[in-house]
């Protein structure tokens, strides 16, 4: 059997129900999915799981999602990085370096179909996009 073309997604959220819902959604769509419940666990998973895309919640205990995605950019530079948040106002105060580490922003609550479509589009465009205006 040849190498699997199944894209790998790492989901990071400290709310188990949210992480499980996202895992079910993406597995149903044919993706290989791993879940981490915090930033440290996510970075640990990335040492063995070569994620094509990382979806992280913003508000988590310890390392927040923006801080995590900054680290993901260093360890897995080709992974697409999505920040999931219901707190856009809070996010606007994040440091610029964190803002640059986030490829895309999706607000909670998300629409399943929209989220899956967005992820498929992002995985289709692996080459770095032009710098955001």
TrEMBL record:
**The UniProt record lists the keyword Signal:** no
Q: Which residues carry this modification: 4-aspartylphosphate?
A: 57
The keyword Phosphoprotein is assigned to this record = yes
Q: Where is the Response regulatory domain?
A: 8-123
Q: Which residues form a coiled coil?
A: none
Please give the start and end residues of each transmembrane region. Answer: none
Keyword list (alphabetical) reads:
Phosphoprotein
InterPro entries associated with the record: Bact_response_regulator, CheY-like_superfamily, Sig_transdc_resp-reg_receiver
Q: What Gene3D superfamilies does the entry give?
A: 3.40.50.2300
Q: What is this protein called?
A: Response regulator
The scientific name of the source species is Hyalangium rubrum
